[in-house]
Amino acid sequence: MAHGEKSQSRPIDMNTPSAARMYDWLLGGSENFQPDRDACVKLLGITPTIQQLARTSRAFLRRAVRILVKEFEVTQFLEHGSGLPTRDNVHEVAQRANPNAKVAYVDNDPMVLAHARTTLHENSNVMVIDRDVRDTAEILEATADFFDWTQPIAALFVSVLDCLRDTGDDRDPAALVKRVAASLPAGSYVVACQLVSDNPVVREKVTTLMAEATNNSWGRVRQSHEVRRYFEGMEIEPPGLVDIADWRPDTPPPPLSLRPKDCREWGGVARV
Ligand SMILES: C[S@@+](CC[C@H](N)C(=O)[O-])C[C@H]1O[C@@H](n2cnc3c(N)ncnc32)[C@H](O)[C@@H]1O
Fold first, then answer.
1. Going by fewer Cβ within 10 Å, which terminus of the chain is more open, N or C?
2. pLDDT tens readout for residues 112-156
3. How far is the CA of 254 from the centre of ligand 1 (A)?
4. SS3 label, residue 108
5. 170 phi/psi in degrees, rounded to 5
6. Alpha helices in 218-261, H assignment, sequence order
7. Distance from the CA of 186 to the center of ligand 1, in angstroms?
């Protein structure tokens, strides 16, 4: 079990695709099963650029974490929905910039947790929490002694809010981000992005496919103006809320003519 993990030990369901394993396949990973791959192929049939978007999202996560450590001097990260990537995880990126950086990962996919157990057991500056990302009180309790609550913490919501359904109550994605932001020390940050589309047909088709594939464990493709709600009351860092390919790119981003037109990952970084 990884450092600090609170296990609820559910079995891995190999027959129902999971968002974590589908994302892993889209990123070229091997921690997935045939039903995950089949669902991804169907998804590619609706939105052929989804693989490019997964890579763009992962690159944004890496840049945001690196810039938060190097420029904003943040050394504590709380990643909601950590996923399965085999390299350049948040602790690897953050600890390259500052070896003392601490990362708490939250996920509820048993395969993600099994993966974490095998890769993180020797890193005392990393903890793994087996919880639904919306269980804020329990997550804060689990991290109470892990983080220094007098110092800023960056709460990460990268490609996870699209996995959450609208509920109109405190389980709603916008309510979740607001609640977490309100519980962080002064000078903390929120990083968030999610899948958006201007095309209602694409929004409907992707949402339906993902809901059916994952046995209703998915949320919704949204519109960019809905992402703005996640950041209400926060001071958004330049360049603002954007196609994340444009969020402080290390190299010139692809011209608009070569970008995905069906869907985009939209988001940014804000100070709470
Ligand atoms: C698409 S992956 C994103 C992974 C990572 N944030 C990244 O950007 O590479 C979404 C992750 O969120 C997790 N997830 C989705 N809904 C969740 C929930 N309600 N509670 C906990 N984890 C959740 C999935 O298991 C998956 O690992």
1. N
2. 999 887 888 778 999 999 999 999 999 999 999 999 999 999 999
3. 26
4. coil
5. -75, 0
6. 224-230
7. 26
